[in-house]
Amino acid sequence: MRRVATVVLSVVCVTLLGVATNVATGALPARWTPHLWLAWPALVVVVAALTVVEVRRARESAPVTGVTATHARRVLLDRVRRYWITSVLERSLHREARIQLGITASADDRRYPWTLRATHRGGFTGVLDGGASVAGLFERLDRAVVILGAPGSGKTTTLLELARELVDAAGRDPDAPIPVVLNLSSWATRRPPLEQWLAAELTERYGIPSRQAGAWIESGAILPLLDGLDEVAATRRDECAAAIAAFHARQPLTPIAVCCREWEYRQLRAGLPVYGTVTIQPLTRPQIERYLNRSGPALAGLRAALTADEGLWEFTGSPLLLTIMGLAYADGPGPAAGPDGRRTRLFTRYVETMLRHRPHPAYRPEQAIRYLSVLGHELRRRQQTIFVLDLVAPDWSPRWVTPSADLLSRALASVAVGGLVALLGAGLLGWPGLAVGATAGALTALGLALAEYEDLVLIASRERRPEDRRPLRVDWVTDTARELRDVAGNAGIGWATVAAALVVGLAFGLTDELHGWPGMLADLAYWLGFLLATLLALAVTGATLFDLYLVGPPGGAPRREIPSPALRQRLRSAAMGAPPLGLVTGALAALLVGSARTGADGLRYGAVVGAFAASYLLVAVALGPVIEQWLVRRRLARDGVLPRPLRPFLDYAVQCLFLRDVGDGYIFVHRELLEFFADRLTRPSTQVVPHP
Q1: 3-class SS at 660?
Q2: Fewer CB within 10 Å: N-end or C-end of the chain?
Q3: What SS3 string covers 224-280?
Q4: Do residues 533 and 500 lie in contact, with contact meaning Cβ atoms separated by under 8 Å?
Q5: In angstroms, rounded to a whole number, what is the distance separating the alpha carbons of residues 628 and 405?
Q6: For the purposes of burial, counting CB atoms within 10 Å of the CB of 446, is it exposed (0-12), middle (13-18) or buried (19 or more)?
Q7: What stretches of 296-392 adopt beta strand conformation (E)?
């Protein structure tokens, strides 16, 4: 039905285009000659509408098979490999520790020291050591498993080992499903059906076009490898497990693997309907002693620490903690007692050792610890695992008590719009153009204050509107109409817009040499042109913001800080939407004024009014938040909360084995390290500003 409507609208636009062209160039009665200029603005409007219709029709009919799908498959496999295999698995803490400590692999060395116990609901049970193929085990469990284990036991590493083998297989076989590693912590933000969440993550994290992602998921071409079910908020964990179960029931032939801590999984009201369970066994003391002995002098410090403090053996059952202990005690045993517990002393020793062995002239150890503590605290507060630059918000600073950056960015943006329109108006229209500029600046300030201005906190939370208020796909005609109705129904904005338009009409009326009915008609044309342009600018801006809320930022964005990935998406959208909006509003204003005055007067007035409408869209959608982001970064750096620029420090934390680089984001090497840093940050409760 939508395609039929699009075709009909395209035919109508083509017909109107021909009529407008004939009117603009044909021979007409002499009395029509003074008004021929009106055909050109109409021609511009029709051409713009036809272009939009054809572009949208081309997008709807774009193929998702053939060369496009083959290229997208190759891109996705490459990004999964780079983001997770190369950047995380091959630079895992276990491997980096061996390099740091100088441990050489022996002939009988296993890939990892832990053991896997597999159970199939059909009766198969087996125990596999670190040299076994995880993909082979996945096949024996009918390609639908849940991976369980204690904190730090190696669940994510096992999942990534599976991902590596599956990526290799998918590279050889074009019919094999594409394995994709995703973290479930982001699902709890809006809690959509799993298919929608998978498609959004493929677009946001991996940069795959949304139509291609949806087609893949519907056809079962995606193999989800879902990490961190235990990292979903406890109040939403059962709901998340139910969403996974519902997805598996709708697509039972789609392979799937889910990671979760064993205790949290046992607390679910209903387990996942998978075929098999893989449980990672704790390291036994003989395994640990064999590992220590094979490592030779590299782990002499750890052996000395275990001899000096027998209580440290309680941590050695976790591969993560065993690796951290090897790094922490590389210089010998530390104090056996202290005010904190052994686990806290262990992580403290680890952090101090890594910062001492890998110093950086720009970041003192106490500064680095402070920055990482802020990062861990904010990720835990938002219940997220992957840090992206869009999460940085003004309330990260303990001194943040008022949205000063938000207000200042609105004020600067409003002054910029008013100044631009005033300069253009003065050059084209004389001193009444200055009145247009001042009125435009005031309306911009009012619109940003009362309309849905997207400040950084709202952009980061992605909770700007309940999803059930609007359809999932934005229909620009109906959605803009709804926004126009909302704007007109807003008493503050509606009456202010009418008053501002009256001021503009009065300014031109005072300098107009026309009197009587022609003068009143000209004043009405100036007033109505400015009013329509303002209402359309507000409505289209609202529809654009809602469309951006649904689409979300793309993945694979350039690694720049300002503007951050989500704001770069906004800049692109605003840059595409501002010219058509300026043309349409300018053409309407030109038609109205040109019919009452001359064609030249109409074109000059249309240029000024169109510039205002386009500038407002740019400011409200993108430039305002970009200014705010710059102000916030300066404030956070001045308060010592985060460095500026931030990416060099994040890369330094990767070198120190605190963080891992994943695509356009960063994750802590393990959840326990995130918790350690988050617990170090203490803030008086009176200084913490609640998150909206």
Answers
A1: strand
A2: N
A3: EEEECHHHCCHHHHHHHHHHHHHHHHHCCCCCEEEEEEHHHHHCCCCCCCCCEEEEE
A4: no
A5: 6
A6: middle
A7: none
Q: Using CA atoms, how far apart are residues 123 and 138, in angstroms rounded to an integer? A: 15
β-strand pairing of 256-261 with 222-227: parallel
- Contact criterion met (CB below 8 Å) for 649 and 358: no
Q: In this structure, are residues 536 and 584 in contact, taking their beta carbons and an 8 Å threshold?
A: yes
Q: Which tokens hold the place of 546?
A: 């809602």
What's the rounded Cα separation, in Å, for the pair 77 and 82? 9
∠655-560-557 over CA atoms, to 5°?
Answer: 100
Find the largest Cα–Cα distance for the chain: 107
Within 308-358, strands assigned E span none
Residue 186, classed as helix, strand or coil, is helix
Give CA–CA dist 183/385, Å, rounded.
Answer: 8
Residue 223 has pLDDT above 90, yes or no: yes
- Rounded distance between C-alpha atoms, residue 139 and residue 122, angstroms: 14
| pLDDT tens per residue, range 573-596 | 888 889 988 998 988 888 888 887
What is 281-299 written as a DSSP string? EPPPHHHHHHHHHHHGGGG
**Closest Cα to residue 635, out of 420, 421, 402, 446?**
402
H or E element in which residue 404 lies = helix 404-429
From the CB of residue 10, how many other CB atoms can be counted at a distance below 10 Å? 16
Residues of 514-535 as b/e, b for ≥16 C-beta within 10 angstroms? eeeeeeeebbebbbbbbbbbbb
Residue listed under structure tokens 């003068």: 519
Q: Are 333 and 305 in contact (CB under 8 A)?
A: yes
Of 276, 275, 277, 279, the closest CA to residue 116 belongs to 279
Q: What is the mean pLDDT of residues 611-629?
A: 89
Q: What percent helix, strand, coil does the chain show, rounded to 5?
A: 65, 5, 25
Q: Do residues 136 and 277 touch, judged by C-beta distance below 8 A?
A: no
Sign of the Cα torsion 349, 351, 352, 357 reads positive
First-to-last alpha carbon distance for the chain, in angstroms, is 40
Amino acid at 609: V
pLDDT digits (tens, 9 = 90+) for 453-465: 666 766 666 533 3
Rounded alpha-carbon distances, angstroms, from residue 641 to 365, 418, 674: 14, 34, 17
pLDDT band at 222 (very low <50, low <70, confident <90, very high): very high
Residues 6+ apart with CB under 8 A from 98: 105
User: What residues contact 438, with CB distance under 8 A and at least 6 apart?
Assistant: 418, 422
Tell me the one-letter amino acid at 439.
Answer: T
- Beta strand pairing status for 665-668 and 659-662? antiparallel
Q: Are 152 and 94 in contact (CB under 8 A)?
A: no
Burial bucket for residue 348 (CB in 10 Å: 0-12, 13-18, 19+): middle
**297-356, pLDDT tens digit by residue?**
777 888 888 888 777 788 777 787 888 888 888 776 665 555 567 788 888 888 988 898
Sheet with 144-149, side-by-side order of all strands: 125-128, 115-120, 276-281, 144-149, 256-261, 222-227, 178-183
Rounded to whole angstroms, the Cα distance separating 356 from 161 reads: 32
DSSP string, 407-461: HHHHHHHHHHHHHHHHHHHHHHH-HHHHHHHHHHHHHHHHHHHHS----HHHHHH
Query: Which residue pairs, CB below 8 angstroms and at least 24 apart, start in 245-251?
Result: 245/270, 245/272, 245/273, 246/193, 246/194, 247/193, 247/194, 247/195, 248/144, 248/272, 248/273, 248/274, 249/273, 250/195, 251/220
Q: Which residues pair with 222 in a beta bridge?
A: 178
- Number of continuous H segments (helices) and E segments (strands) in the chain: 26, 9
